[in-house]
Amino acid sequence: MSDVLLRVPTRMLLTCALVGLLTIPASAEPTQAPLRYNSVKNDREALLLRRLWGIDAVHVRSTASGSLVQFSYRVVNADKAKILNSKDATPYLVDEQHGLALQVPVMEQVGQLRQVAAPQNGRDYWMAFSNKGKYLKPGNHVTLIVGNLRISGLVVE
Question: Which residues of 25-48 are buried (b: 16+ CB within 10 A; e: fewer)?
Fold first, then answer.
């Protein structure tokens, strides 16, 4: 008898929850995703990167057990983002605290660990920097320098 009494309230509760979910009005306009990403300080900085350099979804992540640091981004304006994929521009990732500059390694069979094809809108691109001594760790602040592009205050994830 007590088993039946426990089932009825549970069923009622589930039914009420489902009815409540179905009656929640859908928003007329989809909400826009926030511009902020983990490696960028704030929304203003993210908007600035989008307007000046044609990129968003910026991330700086420690990978390969900390021996590489990957900078990734999405292109929203291919003309403005050309400098990031330029073969002529040498990219550096500089640790703001110690002044240590990391470079993109060149592998014998693979070449540079970065993408240099002409950028296309809506595609994601990346470049990896050697962190052999594992000096950069998650939480460190870095500056990316590629040609005349300089993005400071990025946080390693």
Answer: eeeeeeeeeebebebbeeeebbee
How many structural domains comprise the chain?
1
The single-letter code of the amino acid at 9 is P
Domain with residue 93: its CATH number is 2.60.40
Residue 81 belongs to domain spanning: 43-155
Yes or no: say if 119 and 85 are a contact pair by the CB < 8 Å rule.
Answer: yes
Confirm whether 64 is domain-assigned.
yes
Which secondary-structure segment (H or E) carries 95? Answer: strand 91-95
Q: How far apart are CA 143 and CA 132, in angstroms?
A: 18
Residue pLDDT, tens place only, 94-126: 999 999 999 999 888 887 888 888 999 999 999
**What pTM was computed for the model?**
0.73
Query: What's the pLDDT at 34?
Result: 47
Asked if residue 27 belongs to a domain, the reply is no
* In-domain check, residue 88: yes
CA distance linking residue 13 with residue 93, whole number of Å:
55
